[in-house]
Amino acid sequence: MAEKRRASDDHVEDLAERAEPVTFKKIRFQLPRNEEGLPEKDVPAKDTDDQLMARLRVMRVKELVHEILAAMYYDIHRLCWHRKYLMQNRIRRFPDLHFYKIQHQEASWLLDRAIRQEMLVKVGQTSSHDWAYISKQEAHRVGQFIRQFNWKILAICVLSEAFRLALYAEDQVVWAVLMLKIRENRTSIEVFAQSRGLDWQGQLLKHADKQIPGLQQALVPRLDLAQEHFHHIVIANGSFGRPLYEEHNQTNINHGNIFNPSYFKDKRDPTIRVPDRDGPCDLCYAERECNCRISRPTLATFLVELVNYPHKGIGVRALARFKKGDILDEYVGELRPVDYKDDRVYALLHESKMVEGDPLALISAKRYGNWTRYLNHSCKPSTTFLKMTVGKKIMVAVQAVRDIDIFEEITVDYGKGYWKNRKCLCGEPGCRSQDATEEETEA
Fold first, then answer.
1. 3-state secondary structure of 362
2. Rounded distance, CA 156 to CA 113, Å?
3. For 319-333, what is the mean pLDDT?
4. What is the pTM assigned to this prediction?
């Protein structure tokens, strides 16, 4: 179905100096193994009740921490969305404005307590070091967070209700693992907040006159990443850059394919629905033209990020949990005739779901497209390209074929036709580890 993608000229343009690598000890939870090293299902279980409970506890902690982190990204996204909406419309809608005010107020109070405590420490009042906080646990954890990270990361995280709840309610084991995962994803959290326009500095500006260690550094003006679309940013080795293809910037589009009549002999948009050719709408099952549509941008648009993966190039990482069957987004680009030859990396065949092997056009995403064009190949993918009829159009959607966890790379199968003179590097069992033959390509 697809002729699809990743070539050596797909690379990342650096936008900032690479940060010095941070050295820290990684803690990994490992399940007990039997003495022969065989899978446990092949040998009788020997775990005691205590060992079994310990293993279950590890699994529950990991699950809970992933839920907290997914909620943190969603909280930040929601705040930024409301801020953008309120600024554009300049109106005071009670639910949106009230939610926005409450979140900033709670974050501001917590930061005020942290600043007050640092001022007490500065003047030597350490005997009652936690009196500024509402609890000893808050004092310990906020102080620990500031020492391990900085005021900027704290100001970002406290704007998330999920983070604040974890700070107050979770036990020490969950909190320690959460701190570890925040450290591992520190660059991701920073870029996510900055590229979506989170107002984290405003929480600290009223304390700018205080000589708190590290506070002035957090208030230094930064590169405004929110001026461009957040999918114009690629995270690579602790820094970030911009995706390039053939020395040109790749531009994000959100609202369907770009159609230029001059590219087609009949001047007609090949994605316009034809009832006898394209079948019923996949949303309302109407046999004739309807007004259904898939809302764009989708939630997945906001909760994924572009990452440069070694040996594979730019890929997509999930910042939320997606369920099997979810429609993540539409694959979009410039519509071109089927015989278009200038995009052998991103081009995807566009055809009706009812007529196999009769392509209507190519979707060329080398210059204009959305995040779906960066999906890397896997022989055991987490998504698939799905031909759909929706409303007045036909489209190619990206659908999850299994549950996708936060921080997991989202992948798709490019199909055998892509592997002519190419080598698959996905590393999955049964991977296409050698170049496809001519017979496979023709098939």
1. strand
2. 16
3. 95
4. 0.84
